[in-house]
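Work Package 3 (structural annotation) set out to generate three-dimensional models for the target panel prioritized at the project kickoff. During this period the team completed the workflow that converts sequence records into discrete structure tokens, so that structures can be stored uniformly alongside our sequence database. As a representative example, we reproduce one entry of 513 residues exactly as it appears in the project archive.
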Amino acid sequence: MDKYVLAGIGLVVGAVVGYIIDRLLKGQAHRTREELIKDAEREAENLLRSKELEAKEEFLKRREQLENELGQLRESIRQQERQLDKRDAILSEQQENLKKRERMVEQTQQRMSDRTKHLETREKELERIIRQEQDELHNISGLSREEASQRLLKRFEQELKNETGSLLLKQQQEIKQESEKQAREIVGMALQRYASAHTSETTVATVDIPSDEMKGRIIGREGRNIRAFEKETGVDVIVDDTPGVVVVSAFDTVRREIAKISLQKLIQDGRIHPARIEEVVRETREETDQRIQQLGQAAAEEAGVAGAHEKLIYLMGRLQFRVSYSQNVLRHSIEVAHLTAMMAEQFGLDPVLARRCGFFHDIGKAADHEMEGGHPAIGADLLKRYGESAEVVHAAFGHHDDIRPEYIFTVLTAAADACSASRPGARRETLEKYIRRLEELEAIALGFPGVNEVYAVQAGREVRVIVDPKEINDREAAKMARDIAKTIEENMTYPGEVKVVVMREVRTVGVAR
């Protein structure tokens, strides 16, 4: 019995304990759910506040942006209003000016109308007087109007016959003089419009060396380096006692230029031996060929010549290293091209073809050391071989008047060649002689009393003399110009003519204090 009681009590106690535990667990879960809900509500409120703040910030930014745009729009409108006000003011002023001009035009028209009426009245009066005088003349002479007209016509016809011959001779003489004058003006204008630089070259080039010890390295052991260099370049290398300089000498300017550049490269490199010499000279020769091609292309573009064969362009580039009586042949060719085109334009001919004739006229000088014959014949053969027109070929062949010209462009090319060669500073004068002549011109003008400064300009074709206005008046300045010109004629030899300009300047200065 006791066992069953104890067992029942144990069951009751277990059930009570289980019920209590279950109630505790259910209460804990209920509290946890409420806390989660509260946390979620708090997070939702926080998120809502955050979104509200972001929305307010975005609204403020957008409001500020709209206010700025509105301000800019208002400022733009104000500027447009100001511009419109200015335009209105200008239009009003112009309208007022137009009204004034209209009134002036009306007044002028009224005056013209009155004057016209007055002139018509005077004209009628003159016609009446003339008819009256004619009637009186007819009555006095006893001739009718028709008979008087016939006599006058016969007299005029006889006078015209007598004067016709003399007028024709006079017109022929004037036409001849005018044509000669225009020809001189065309040539002179072409020369004046184009003036190029004068280039003077020699047959030697100097190469600077850092020290005299380098001379020994250039010569090499038993002279093998200098022999290899001279054999490879075809020039003469002169190593003397002159400090810091080695001289390269050659008649062919292209070879001399290649040798000069190659020697400079070897000196900078420091490695000087036969194998290195051959390598450097070969590289320099290739670079020089490219440079010659570029020079020829640049010259063709400067002269306005397009579509020429590459070989012709290369030969023209070689003329950069050729001189004729101290004048660079490439610059001379460009100058002749421009002069020929200018004269062709004056005669109404094709300036493009004329420019081409002048540009290629001396191309034979680029190959005359390789081919037999003079440079005109060589140049004509080269131009014909590479597809140039008959006018260009004939201009190169006949620009020295060796043959009878068949085209007008040959005559223009020969004239332009002579003008380029004979202008001051070109081949007929060395640079020293040219400068000395300018100095003599200035010295002659400075020898006159009252002269402050003298400038020889336009290659010696003009002398500008500035005199002291206190010592020389206007009449004395005119006399001084004639005296200086006469002194230059008596004491100097010069091509063309020299213009003497005497300038007298008076300056008045006032100072406000």
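The longest strand covers residues 451-457.
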